[in-house]
Amino acid sequence: MRPLAAGLSYPRLLVALAVATLVPLAVVAWAQRRAAPPAALWGALLVQAVVLLNVVAHVATAVLLTRGYTPGLATAVVVNLPFSLYLLRRAERERWLGRGALVALAPAALAVHGPLLLALLMLAATAAR
């Protein structure tokens, strides 16, 4: 990650963060429309599953790598963790989607939080050159 981080200027990082914020907002806005298709709801729940995975990443970074506080840790644990658990449990309890669709959120969240996020950062770093 260091070579990637070294090639990523602050303005390009801000662009990458803006894209990583605006795309999920668009997905959630799509899900909020009347008569939104089930794919929109699944996409919104995927956004929350990615947020939950990000909580795990923040905690793991703090515990395993820095052995102390890292930026975003408090927000991840105090805000994102409880809301993610609430929303995903409610979706399961109220059967917003089928069981298979809910189970599919886990591997999809890994793909979004891993390879897709890395690709976004690499694209931003490449554009900076």
Write structural notes for this entry:
- The protein is mainly α and 129 residues long.
- It has one domain.
- 82% of the residues lie in helices and 0% in strands.
- It has six helices and no strands.
- The model has no long low-confidence stretch (mean pLDDT 88).
Structural key phrases:
mainly alpha; single chain; 6 helices; 129 residues
Structural class: mainly alpha
Name the poorly predicted regions: none
Distance between the termini: 17 Å
- Main sheet record: none
**Number of beta strands:** 0
Indicate the overall shape: globular
Radius of gyration: 16 Å
Strand content: under 5%
The string of secondary-structure elements, in order, is: HHHHHH
How many helices? The count is 6
The tally of structural domains comes to 1
What does the oligomeric state look like here?
A: single chain
Mean pLDDT: 88
What fraction, in percent, of the residue positions are helical?
over 70%
